[in-house]
Structure formats: C-alpha cells, structure tokens
Amino acid sequence: MTTIHIPFEDMKRTFHRVLVKVGFTSERADRLADVFAQNSLDGVASHGWNRFPALIKQIDQGYVKVDAEPERVVALGAWEQWDGNLGPGPLNALTATDRAMELAREYGIGCVGLRNTNHWMRAGTYGQVAARAGFVLLCWTNAVPVMPPYGSRDIRLGNNPLVLAVPHQGGPVVLDIAMSQFSFGKMEVLSRRGEKLPVPGGVDQHGQPTQDATVILESGRALPIGYWKGSGLALLLDMTATLVTGGQATYQIRQCEAEFGISQVFVAFDITRPSGTDWVEREVQNIITDMQQAKPETPDAEVMFPGERVLRTRQENMANGIPVDETAWQAILTM
Fold first, then answer.
1. Is the pLDDT of residue 299 over 90?
2. Is 37 exposed, middle or buried (0-12, 13-18, 19+ CB in 10 A)?
3. Domains in the chain, CATH or no CATH each
C-alpha cells in the first residue's frame, strides 16, 4: 500500500464536490464534508476517507435520503423524540446534539432520542462538538448485529458505540468505544493493510480467538469488550435506545437488507450551571493531573486521557497532511 498525504482543505473540497454531485445543497455538503475531513484529520480513517465511498454507495442504493431533514415528533420537556427520516447520519446527529444542548440550556439536562436515522460515522464527533461548547455529552447508537451474546454462537448484538465527553481547555476528554473489542471500520482498515490486531478481537469459524482482522470479518463473530460485561452493555444500550427513541431495535435492523433506520440517544448536561466554568475546568484538570501522575509501565510510555492522542494526531496531520492510501484516494477523485 502506498501512502500519500492530503492537506485538510483539499480533502474537504474533494468530499464537497462529490456530495454536491450526488444531490446535496452546497451548505449541507459543506457540513457533511467537514465531518469526514475532520475524522480523517484526527486519524480515524475508518470513519473518514475510508468510509466516504460507502456513504455514496448507500445514497445510490436509496438507503440515505439526501434531502431528508430530521423532525421533532414528541416533546416531553427536557426529553424529545425526533425522526431522522433516513437522512444522512452525521447531519442528523449534529442536529440532535445541537438540540440536546438547547434543552440543557433550558432545563440543565436535555435528551434527544433520534429514530429512523443512518450511520453517524465517528461517534466521538458529537462528543467533541458538545464538549467544546462546554457541555458533558452522553450518546450512543444501536446497530446491525455483529456479535454473539456471551456464551453463544449466533450473532445477535450490535457493537453499539458509546460516547462520554467532558469539556477541558486543553482539549475535550472524549471516550468513544464500541461494544466490540475493535470497530468493524478499524478491522476493515487493518485487513486491507494485511496487519494483525494487537490483541484477539474475535473468533474464527472454529470458535478460536484470533488477531486476524480478515478472518473475523469473514466469520462475523467479533468479541464484546469485557466478554459478558460488554455483551450485557450492548444489549442494554440497544434496549434503552429503542425505548427512548421509539425506533427500531437491533433485531429489527437485522431483518433489513442493509444497516439503516437505526436509533440513537443524545443526553447533554449544562455542567457549568451549578458551580461555574472555572470550577468545572479546575476539577477536570485536577482529575487528569492525578491520573497522569501514575507511573508508566515502560520508560517510553505515556499516561494519556481519552482523546489526548487524537489531539496530537490532529496537529501532526494539519502540519504534514492527512495520510491516505493512494489507490483509495484516486478512486474518490474519480467519483
């Protein structure tokens, strides 16, 4: 694989051009292109340039509606239910995040249950948006089944990514985790590179743990994080998302010909209201400082807070260009 480096603005312009070509208005194309370019800039190729062609394919197949806008269908004070109308997942998720923050400004806490939407790409995107605005955000999604419940062979659980984000002047503290040991986007990238996972991430056709991403993708049997703990959490995230949104559960998504019409939850806290911005920043920094005083396992290791490595990657890629597989990039240029 040959790696080339693409400047951020060049990448965003390319995405924008393609999105306008498939029917987006320039304004919506700009916002969506920014999501994919920002994900790529942060080193999350699995939900940046690597995933962009999949979005265009879903648009062509009719699963993602270019012109669809989300709409509120139920209002219960600080909790609202919205219908995504099968619009682009990232745009729907940004709308839901903004609305959750608006509700939090009014009530102190705001919850938006978004149903009938599409893949939101990198879950951490919305945590970053909220944390930079001074909010704590908890959000998650259900998904097509990719894992067997712990102790079984049949695939029934989605990887159901979960995000918890906290504001911090040195950069948002953002935990973005799938319930599978590795996201399928990450495994697809490693499979194409011919690289192994650092630890077993699933099982092969014979039920044996493996670090081979290609084998896991073929078997479809990813391991849940924490074994029975991740299995249970994946189930409850799906269950809660279904109830809060009034949307589809994973077992219903499984019956579709592709992953679409999923359910997502966004809960924002206006965290500065009780004690002020200064207190929030001081306490967050005190917690980080205490954690980073832990002695590393090896002399060259660092103890970093969730999202800190992303901040460094962003700086490096902004200065040097975003590393991209040349063949994949040429395919995007021809779209």
1. no
2. buried
3. 1-61+309-335 (1.10.1530.10), 64-180+224-293 (3.30.1370.60)
